[in-house]
């Protein structure tokens, strides 16, 4: 057999089924499917999280509940949708009421915060693998209301590339908690890993000026790569242009780059917009006390070129997250 296929190879090879839908949509490949039903557009997304894969084994179930919904709302934000409802499929390895109660509290906190109602789901028991209980998994399908919506396709040559927030914080928290980096994980970094903020208001605003958008879940360069691929364009990115949090600054330039470019788990938005939109974007950011960084430009040549603050070329050794990359 050849090389092990990536997560994205598997999706492209086996899940582009080619079965036509009577509900028009743009098909697979975006953060959400935007489906036209009558005169309305509904954005739909689904994400599975597993204890041990997306969470450390000792995760507080409150965090698991909050984050399971928040990451789905981040996909809705990338499509410029307003969250409305969600469905929850939960596979537990035992009926641990203490765990479920805390999980439910975290879920409820996020649901209340974003006005997203739980409308259904499924609760099952996972099996044993040998003597071991299989890990808990949670799958959420979230739906939101959207006007035109935003997709990963649509970036144009000459557009600016923007990103929200301070990337890299969640990755730093993971590295510190697992002992890969030495030091203590600050409360701020822990919170950035545990309780991500889906950028719902930003996504809605961007509908007026962005040409393409994605959320940053698997590493900035990888998620920008999806925009480039779907838009059939390239980019030049300044690897030092993204805002860095005070807590990440302490870890030095190379770790900052690794965390910001490839770390993942940020749940910020990356988008492209014409240069004329700079003023509007900066004004929105100021009004909503949100950090945004202009980090690059869309180019015609279908490659991703990295430069540093002096304009010197930087070798791209930064790989984002792939579930099957061992
Ligand atoms: P996200 O990180 O925003 O959840 P991904 O980049 O992981 O999305 O997925 C890329 C695209 O592939 C998305 O449009 C997603 O809906 C689709 N996809 C992923 N897995 C499957 C699958 N098993 N069947 C059909 N589509 C899938
Ligand atoms: Mg996404």
Question: What key attributes describe this structure?
Answer:
326 residues, alpha+beta, binds adenosine-5'-diphosphate, globular, binds magnesium ion, 32% helix, 14 strands, seven-stranded mixed sheet
**How are the strands ordered across the major sheet?**
9-11-8-12-10-13-14
Bound molecules: adenosine-5'-diphosphate, magnesium ion
Shape: globular
Unreliable parts: none
Largest sheet: 7 strands, mixed
Helix content: 25-40%
Secondary-structure element string: HEEHEHEEEEEHHHEHEHHEHEEE
H/I helix tally: 10
Rg for CA atoms: 20 Å
How far the N terminus sits from the C terminus, by CA atoms, comes to 16 Å
Class from secondary-structure proportions? alpha+beta
If you average the pLDDT, what whole number results? 94
How many β strands by DSSP?
14
């Amino acid at each position: 057999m050849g090389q092990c296929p990536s997560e994205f190879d598997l999706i492209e090879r086996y899940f582009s089924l080619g079965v036509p839908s009577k509900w028009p949509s743009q098909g697979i490949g975006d953060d959400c499917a935007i489906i036209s039903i009558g005169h309305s557009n509904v954005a739909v997304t689904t994400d599975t999280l597993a204890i041990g894969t997306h969470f450390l084994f000792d995760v507080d179930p409150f965090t698991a509940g909050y984050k399971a919904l928040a990451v789905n709302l981040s996909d809705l934000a990338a499509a410029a949708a307003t969250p409305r409802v969600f469905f929850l499929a939960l596979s537990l390895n035992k009926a641990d009421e203490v765990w479920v109660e805390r999980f439910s509290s975290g879920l409820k906190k996020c649901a209340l915060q974003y006005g997203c109602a739980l409308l259904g789901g499924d609760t099952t028991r996972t099996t044993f693998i040998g003597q071991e209980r299989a890990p808990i998994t949670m799958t959420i399908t979230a739906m939101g209301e959207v006007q035109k919506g935003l997709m990963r396709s649509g970036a144009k040559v000459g557009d600016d590339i923007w990103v929200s927030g301070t990337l890299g914080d969640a990755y730093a928290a993971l590295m510190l908690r697992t002992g890969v980096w030495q030091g203590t994980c600050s409360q701020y970094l822990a919170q950035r890993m545990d309780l991500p903020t889906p950028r719902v208001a930003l996504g809605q605003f961007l509908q007026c000026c962005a040409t393409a958008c994605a959320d940053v879940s698997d590493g900035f360069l990888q998620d920008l790569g999806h925009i480039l691929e779907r838009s059939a364009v390239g980019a030049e990115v300044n690897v030092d242009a993204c805002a860095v949090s005070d807590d990440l600054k302490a870890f030095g330039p190379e770790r900052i780059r690794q965390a910001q470019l490839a770390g993942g788990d940020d749940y910020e938005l990356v988008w492209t917009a014409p240069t004329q939109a700079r003023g509007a974007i900066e004004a929105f950011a100021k009004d909503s006390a949100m950090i945004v960084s202009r980090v690059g430009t869309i180019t015609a040549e279908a490659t991703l070129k990295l430069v540093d603050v002096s304009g010197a070329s930087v070798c791209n050794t930064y790989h984002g997250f792939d579930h099957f990359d061992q």
